[in-house]
Amino acid sequence: MSKIKIMSNRRRFLGQLGAGASLVTLGGCDAFDGVLGLGHPALGFLRKANALTMGAQRAIQGPATMAREYPPSAIRQDQRPNGSTDPQTDDYLAVQKDDFAGYRLQVTGLVDKPLSLSLNELRQMPSRTQITRHDCVEGWSCIAQWTGVQLSRVLDRAGIKPAARYVVFHCYDSMDDTLGDDSTLYYESIDLISAYHPQTILAYGLNGQTLPIANGAPLRVRIEQQLGYKMAKYIRAIEIVDSFAKIAGGNGGYWEDRGYDWYAGS
User: Fold this and answer.
1) Is 51 in a helix, a strand, or coil?
2) 73, 136 contact by CB (below 8 A)
3) Are 241 and 250 spatial neighbours (Cβ–Cβ below 8 Å)?
4) DSSP code at position 39
5) Which label site among 74, 146, 209, 215 has the fewest CB atoms less than 10 Å from its CB?
6) What integer is the mean pLDDT of 174-193?
7) What per-residue string of b and e applies to 249-261 under the rule 16 or more CB within 10 Å gives b?
8) How confident is residue 13, by pLDDT bands cut at 50, 70 and 90?
9) DSSP per residue over 180-226, as a string?
10) Are 125 and 149 contacting, i.e. CB atoms less than 8 angstroms apart?
11) What is the pTM of this model?
């Protein structure tokens, strides 16, 4: 059985458990995909309910509630990588040369001033270091120290237009390297509330060292209030949009196009 099939079944199982325990949480709309089909109108209702759950969670916790941060003594192992760990796309292999000396982060879309930032320019911006727990949808967790620039600082430098609603992370890695799936490049998205959260950072450091390739070098996003698959690795560009309906499968992320929830609050 392929890895993607195993993950899909595991996700479906967890979703069925959640649905059985409480339809209010609706944590796994994909649990119904095999029964209703991806185009079934009932799925639209379930996804609206999922959005309601997101709103309720934020109303209870507050949009800027901080994820728990830990002391250095809580770091007891290397950060376990999630997703792809060794991208082999031509563009990534080209930028990987000379320790990413030629890397530039592109910031485009609904902004007043498109940006093209080198790693050194990102490192020269005020940084934030946080020790947090990474929660994977597969059920494992790991505590590590992450260092990077707050995404809000980059967005403020670019200037967000009033019509902006989402931040889309376009990545270098293709999941076919890991799962034998297809050639779709990984992508993810969050809304502006998550983007401007103080703990949402573009990380270039891990446990006091330069971010390793297996963990997303040269740059990955940390969104500490959501599950691991939302934290895109190998970021090549950030696009500010008012809708992601016309990007890839139209659901706001690589895994979301395959049935995962867009909001993955942990």
Assistant:
1) helix
2) no
3) no
4) T
5) 209
6) 79
7) eebbbbbbbbbbb
8) very low
9) S--SPEEEEEEEHHHHTSTT-EEEEEETTEEPPGGGTTT-EEE-TTB
10) yes
11) 0.80
